[in-house]
Amino acid sequence: MPACLFTQEAKAQGDFLLVGLHTDEDVQSRRGAHLPIMNVHERALSVLACKYVDEVIIGAPTVIDDNLLKTFNITLVVRGSYSETSGQGPVEPER
């Protein structure tokens, strides 16, 4: 599924789409030294270019807790990812 289609479907679930991006170090530790292809700032600009995204959190935690939900007034979490290798099946254990 293309990234903008993913964000379009996520945005349809609510009225404000806040996208969390993991740090480069987090991605490397889970997916290998060759990833991510773009650094976190490039990924943030790419995600913000999608018209359905309202805001980006750089350095989002891998575990979402009640404190984060309350701080940002989040009522629904849509979780997923899209990458060049997404069509090749899972590359990391399910979280």
Descriptive account of the structure:
The structure is a single chain. It is built from 4 helices and 2 strands, in the order H-E-H-H-E-H. With 95 residues, it is α+β, with helices and mostly antiparallel strands. A two-stranded parallel ribbon has the order 1-2. The chain is globular, with a radius of gyration of 13 Å. 5% of the residues are buried. The mean pLDDT is 84.
Q: Secondary-structure blueprint of this entry?
A:
Blueprint: H1 3-11, E1 18-21, H2 24-31, H3 40-48, E2 55-58, H4 66-71
Parallel strand pairs: 1-2
SS element count, helices = 4
Mass-distribution shape: globular
Helix/strand-derived category reads alpha+beta
Rounded mean pLDDT score: 84
Give me the side-by-side strand order of the main sheet: 1-2
Strand content: 5-15%
Distance, first to last CA: 20 Å
Q: Considering DSSP H and I runs of 4 or more, what fraction of the residues is helical?
A: 25-40%
Radius of gyration: 13 Å
User: How many β strands by DSSP?
Assistant: 2
The helix/strand order is: HEHHEH
